[in-house]
Amino acid sequence: MVVCGLACWRCRWLLPLLLGLAIIMGIIALAGRGWLESESEPYVHQASLWDSCTRSQGDLNWSCESLMDYGWGRAAAATYLVGFVILVICFALAVIAFSIEILRFNFVRGIGGLLFVVAAFQIIGLVIYPVKFTEEIPLTGDNMFSWAYGFGWASTVVAIGCAFFFCCLPNWEDEVLGNIKPTYYYSSPERAPYLN
């Protein structure tokens, strides 16, 4: 049976694994066409981070307009993309940090700080997009921000969680490295005089 507590050195790969999961969700958000979709039939609107597509009822072909023609579209895409690139860099740094036998805990805290920067950039992009999209793009029918937009938020939430763990990990340096001697507690009252 494998027990994975805080002092388990094998468990050091959990944080880079979570960062890898955040990267996968970020890729889905960047490539997905489900940032905004029609909520019910007829499905006449579909948008991604990069473009907005519409079609008339009964038509099978989508007519797409690039969101990069708008300043807010470029800003939303740029901030989310910058956050994603920094997230990939943090993942590479985390793999390097946890591969070294002597873990550099100040280095780990720096990764946590960078992850807060990732979260800030991604949140800016995820807030600019719906606010300006609903203001400047004409919408018909009932629309909802959909699955790809949700993956963008999920990636950001995982990055924030990992940032807290990376920043707090140096506080438990001795536990992680196994440098603490076990403490034994004796419960027998007869043995208490012999412990002095």
Report on the architecture of this protein.
The protein has 196 residues and is an alpha+beta fold. The protein has a five-stranded antiparallel beta sheet. It contains five helices and five strands; from the N terminus they run αββββααβαα. Mean pLDDT is 81; it is low at 1-7. The chain crosses the membrane at residues 12-32, 77-98, 110-131, 151-172.
In short:
The chain is 54% helix and 9% strand. The chain is of the alpha+beta class and 196 residues long. Helix 1 packs antiparallel against helix 2, helix 2 packs antiparallel against helix 3 and helix 3 packs antiparallel against helix 4.
Main sheet characteristics:
5 strands, antiparallel
Give the neighbour order of strands across the main sheet: 4-3-2-1-5
Secondary-structure element pattern, one letter each: HEEEEHHEHH
Report, as a whole number of angstroms, the end-to-end distance. Answer: 37 Å
Strand element count: 5
Number of helices: 5
Q: Look at the structure and give the mean pLDDT.
A: 81
Our estimate of the beta-strand percent is 5-15%
Approximate shape: elongated
Counting helices, strands and paired strands, the structural category is: alpha+beta
Gyration radius, to the nearest Å? 24 Å
Percent of residues in helices? 40-55%
Low-confidence stretches: 1-7
Family: Belongs to the TMEM47 family.
Subcellular location: Cell junction, Desmosome; Cell membrane; Cytoplasm
Organism: Spheniscus mendiculus (Galapagos penguin)
Main location: other
